[in-house]
Amino acid sequence: MKENTVPFFKLFLSFFPFTWFLNIIHDRFRKGKINFENTLELLSKFDIPYDYVHVKHIFKASDSLKAGTITLEDFRGIYRTIVHRGEIQELFKAHAPNHRTLPVPHLVEFLRNEQFQPEANETTASQLIAKFEPIEEAKRNAQMTLEGFLRYMTSDDCAIFKTEHRIVYQDMTRPLSEYFISTSHNTYLLSDQLIGPSHLWGYASALMKGCRCLEIDCWDGPSNDPVVYHGHTLTSKISFKTVIQVINKYAFLVSDYPLVLSLENHCSPKQQEVIADYLINILGDKLVVSTIDDMVPNELPSPEALKFKIMIKNKKLGTLEETLERRGTDSHGQTGEFEEEETSDEEKDENPAQSKLPLLKKRRTHWKGSIPPRKKQKMKKIKIALALSELVIYTKARKFVSFEDSRENQHFFEINSIGELKARKLAKLAATEFVQHTVRFITRIYPKGTRTNSSNYNPQEFWNVGCQMVALNFQTAGVQMDLQNGKFLDNGGSGYVLKPEYLRNANTKFNPYVLSANQHPVILTIKLISGHQLPPSSLSRSNKADPVVIVEIYGVPDDQTKQQSYVVKGNALSPRWNETFTFNIQVPELALVRFVVEDQLSLTSNDFLGQYTLPLLSMNKGYRKVPLFSKLGVNLHPASLFVHIWYFTQ
Ligand SMILES: *[C@@H]1O[C@H](CO)[C@@H](O)[C@H](O)[C@H]1NC(C)=O
Ligand SMILES: *[C@@H]1O[C@H](CO)[C@@H](O)[C@H](O)[C@H]1NC(C)=O
Ligand SMILES: *[C@@H]1O[C@H](CO)[C@@H](O)[C@H](O)[C@H]1NC(C)=O
């Protein structure tokens, strides 16, 4: 250690704000002062992510003469304000011998003891130094200076979301029904003009978010060419063919795993045949038209077995066996018909008056002078073209009657769609039965018909009972979509997340409302240390805000809670909280953690600044950066929170 003292001291003299710093800024200041643009350029040269509004305000404050230029000393001040974060300096000093540099062995110790990375060794530490240390001399000596440490701690390498969960890491060879599947409802956007008609971009955009089940509303169009639009909205009509072409192009850009097209089919058998032809001709080999090996299996295949495949969910005539027996024969011109109760799963059954079709029926019934339709079990005829029916293999739509009916009569390749209100009732009244149902069958939940403004319900309550496809309006931002995006960050953003064992096991007794003793609860401790370059309030003309952080837990009802920090007055640049929150979480596998940052405008109203949501078990332990996203899901980098995370199983 003694011999090291001299080089350490030399090094200390040689780094900030001396040689390294001067080398970079020398050119700029040769002519004296620099302006704002040069300041931004210099910060970029130092690899410093900055927020324009914050730097602008600090620059203005430094420019005391209002000349639009600053001196070297002023720039040093800006650099320190933006980069030299007190909380990270404290951490560095606590781990660096002589408070100056972190040699490799000390960095390894820091990673193991503070960052909970037991596998960290000399190689890991050297790689970090090579990646983050800007001062050449320190790099050569295998040491990390404060400059390197600051860059490391604020990088994605220190992000709260586990690196190992950013790729597909779960077992993908289980039957499809064992996964939560990212699902969208009525996929369209009203205002986006990027690739033409708004809802075309809606499909592409949902696929780019990892969505693996899209809903397509098909209607008879002119010239025997089916069209897509949403019956009770103002969206324009586009041809079914174009929709399938767009889906074909975007289907596997983000995820390799299978895509389900859920057809909400209002077409005549004649146009259903056209639909079948488009699907076959445009999707080609991607389309699932038979079972694997042409044999009838007794359970659903896995996402792995169906990589790069597209499946059609629609009503179907008869069984899978019959389809396989008919293989090779031409099914054009043949149709089948069956009767179903009026409140079919695709009508918005909770409030018939809200959708057009039941409204017409209602009038007619009234005209006949019969009893109101809500009381009467009206039957309607459904006509299906055999050509389309034959394309439905693993995802046959089946009307949900009751859990008992499903237990006795439902096939493994049949999917139920249940409206939000009915599903909520079932979850409350018969949660365990619901769970046992979703262990066997893929279950899709869709929003109630009164959500004509495309608002969303909380998906968590249906994930809690194992529902695989909990369909949300992807175009409607808000806490529900934050939960959706957060949940499906897991497993590489592939759109498939393996359900916990108690939602997959045929003998499960799991009930999210009445927890049994065999859970493995987790104690979670979050120390909220600081915020960094938070977006100033949209209502503020300065770079200030009165930030407050709310940590929310979503999960089973017992775990649902939130805790709030105190308000830091007038500081969006570097608020400091030092506040610790502790949560006792009964069902950690289902828990999501949402960090929300708000600006307290008054005692009764807050302005949303940013949020981040992720699965509890995808959180890294130790000192971590929490990125922040806007309401619309835009990354607000470099805005972030700095936290210390710790959790353990009781
Ligand atoms: C550090 O661990 C990695 C595997 O995690 C291993 O490949 C490497 O050889 C180890 N390095 C040292 C110096 O032990
Ligand atoms: C949508 O309508 C629901 C009531 O049906 C209402 O509570 C909600 O605030 C509305 N959302 C928007 C974005 O208008
Ligand atoms: C937070 O803690 C640090 C030391 O750990 C202290 O220097 C700082 O003043 C504290 N800040 C607040 C706002 O409590």
TrEMBL record:
Name all PI-PLC Y-box domain ranges: 388-504
Q: What are the names of the required cofactors? A: Ca(2+)
> Which GO biological process entries does UniProt record here?
intracellular signal transduction; lipid catabolic process; positive regulation of cytosolic calcium ion concentration involved in egg activation
Q: Which UniProt keywords are listed?
A: Calcium, Cytoplasm, Developmental protein, Fertilization, Hydrolase, Lipid degradation, Lipid metabolism, Membrane, Nucleus, Transducer, Transmembrane, Transmembrane helix
* GO cellular component, as recorded: nucleus; perinuclear region of cytoplasm
Q: Which InterPro entries match?
A: C2_dom, C2_domain_sf, EF-hand-dom_pair, PI-PLC_fam, PLC-like_Pdiesterase_TIM-brl, PLC_EF-hand-like, PLipase_C_PInositol-sp_X_dom, PLipase_C_Pinositol-sp_Y
Extract the signal peptide range.
none
Broadest EC class assigned to this enzyme: hydrolase
Give the UniProt subcellular location, in the record's own words.
Answer: Cytoplasm, Perinuclear region; Nucleus
Q: What is this protein called?
A: Phosphoinositide phospholipase C
Q: Where is this region: Disordered?
A: 321-357
Feature: compositional bias, Acidic residues:
337-349
Q: Does the keyword Transmembrane helix apply?
A: yes
Q: Which PANTHER family match?
A: 1-PHOSPHATIDYLINOSITOL 4,5-BISPHOSPHATE PHOSPHODIESTERASE ZETA-1, PHOSPHOINOSITIDE-SPECIFIC PHOSPHOLIPASE C FAMILY PROTEIN
Q: What is its EC number?
A: 3.1.4.11
Tagged with keyword Lipid metabolism: yes
Taxonomic lineage is: Eukaryota, Metazoa, Chordata, Craniata, Vertebrata
Q: GO MF annotations for this entry?
A: phosphatidylinositol-4,5-bisphosphate phospholipase C activity
Q: Which positions fall inside the C2 domain?
A: 504-630
Organism this protein belongs to: Salvator merianae
Q: Which PROSITE patterns match?
A: C2, PIPLC_X_DOMAIN, PIPLC_Y_DOMAIN
Q: What does this protein do?
A: The production of the second messenger molecules diacylglycerol (DAG) and inositol 1,4,5-trisphosphate (IP3) is mediated by activated phosphatidylinositol-specific phospholipase C enzymes. In vitro, hydrolyzes PtdIns(4,5)P2 in a Ca(2+)-dependent manner. Triggers intracellular Ca(2+) oscillations in oocytes solely during M phase and is involved in inducing oocyte activation and initiating embryonic development up to the blastocyst stage.
Primary location: cytoplasm
Q: Which SUPFAM superfamilies match?
A: C2 domain (Calcium/lipid-binding domain, CaLB), EF-hand, PLC-like phosphodiesterases
Catalytic activity field: a 1,2-diacyl-sn-glycero-3-phospho-(1D-myo-inositol-4,5-bisphosphate) + H2O = 1D-myo-inositol 1,4,5-trisphosphate + a 1,2-diacyl-sn-glycerol + H(+)
Q: Where are the transmembrane segments?
A: 6-25
